[in-house]
Amino acid sequence: MIPDTKTVHDAATEAAGIYCNLVKKYDAEMTTLDCGGGLGVDYDGTRSGGDMSVSYGLEQYASSIVQAVRIKCDSNGVPHPVLCTESGRAMVSHHSMIILEALSATPDPQDDINTTHEELLSVVKGLMRTIQKDPIIPSEGTAVNVDVEGIQKHGIELYKVAKKLSKKATSDAHIIYNYHMNLSVFSLVPDFWGIKQLFPMMPVRRLNEEPTHKGTLVDITCDSDGKIEKFIDGGLTLPLHPLDDDGGYYVVVLLSGAYQEALAGKHNLFSGPSLVHVKSTGTDGGFTIDCGDLGPTTEEVIMTMRYNVQLDIKEAILNKARTPEEEELVGELVDQVLKTMPYLNEYKPPRTT
């Protein structure tokens, strides 16, 4: 994303200069100037020009390009070209959102709950001094493996302590809750994992109640990276509500229409979600549900990995059955698993403590 209109203006001026040179000097019969992409999306709502924002809107972006090209063409006596852009991200980001359901919420272990900010900061400074104390200057025939391993060990410890310090500094409460979501980070929000893209998120239900929990979102895969613990505006937690017996607590990931579905992988065989197509009925905020499409079944996902479901999966499992009764029971369970989505479908969220 291009963060500010000055960059847009400068780039358009340079492109227009090349265009004018081709038309005047080489008599190129051109009438269109493609200004490329770069129109950004204000993900964090700050209009700050930061990594997750841009300091302009659509009108300012268009004005910068039109003005730059007009001035350059007028000064060279070249007719104004037709301008076009390829701003895919800005066009499609707002068309889609991902709704995630919470399965449970558990307190994050707090083994240092009584540790003060000052004590944690002192540990951080001590580890940094240890790492910087003895520089590695290897001489001929001298092994440095021990020194490198020591620095790596201290670096990992420094990361852990600094993370605890950050959470203490940004959270109003001592307890942070891990909300286990019916989610695969790799499959549904790959840009969060791949390029550290942050998306605006919020609860969908109970909007008339103040959220009292500080939460992180944990997916149901076995990956250590399957966790969302960085949020808009530098937050390490997301304000959420405690779960209740009614279940059905949802969190929405907004502005997810650009690239997430196209880039989504099948890591851990989780693939994509079910899709619901919604159409606006006008300016009154009303909408209609056009259609709903269930996500890929487990069998479909496995087949994309070039496995033969019948031979490599089902038959291999049935061969382990010791009796006809076991084979029938196992066969029914395997069929049920293969014909449903990999995500969890039937559950009742427990109460939080």
Automatic annotation (TrEMBL):
<dbReference type="InterPro" id="IPR009006">
    <property type="entry name" value="Ala_racemase/Decarboxylase_C"/>
</dbReference>
<keyword id="KW-0210">Decarboxylase</keyword>
<keyword id="KW-0663">Pyridoxal phosphate</keyword>
<keyword id="KW-0745">Spermidine biosynthesis</keyword>
<feature type="domain" description="Orn/DAP/Arg decarboxylase 2 N-terminal">
    <location>
        <begin position="4"/>
        <end position="93"/>
    </location>
</feature>
<dbReference type="InterPro" id="IPR029066">
    <property type="entry name" value="PLP-binding_barrel"/>
</dbReference>
<dbReference type="InterPro" id="IPR022644">
    <property type="entry name" value="De-COase2_N"/>
</dbReference>
<comment type="pathway">
    <text>Amine and polyamine biosynthesis; agmatine biosynthesis; agmatine from L-arginine: step 1/1.</text>
</comment>
<protein>
    <recommendedName>
        <fullName>Arginine decarboxylase</fullName>
        <ecNumber>4.1.1.19</ecNumber>
    </recommendedName>
</protein>
<keyword id="KW-0456">Lyase</keyword>
<dbReference type="InterPro" id="IPR002985">
    <property type="entry name" value="Arg_decrbxlase"/>
</dbReference>
<comment type="similarity">
    <text>Belongs to the Orn/Lys/Arg decarboxylase class-II family. SpeA subfamily.</text>
</comment>
<dbReference type="GO" id="GO:0008295">
    <property type="term" value="P:spermidine biosynthetic process"/>
</dbReference>
<dbReference type="Pfam" id="PF02784">
    <property type="entry name" value="Orn_Arg_deC_N"/>
</dbReference>
<dbReference type="GO" id="GO:0006527">
    <property type="term" value="P:L-arginine catabolic process"/>
</dbReference>
<keyword id="KW-0460">Magnesium</keyword>
<dbReference type="InterPro" id="IPR000183">
    <property type="entry name" value="Orn/DAP/Arg_de-COase"/>
</dbReference>
<dbReference type="GO" id="GO:0008792">
    <property type="term" value="F:arginine decarboxylase activity"/>
</dbReference>
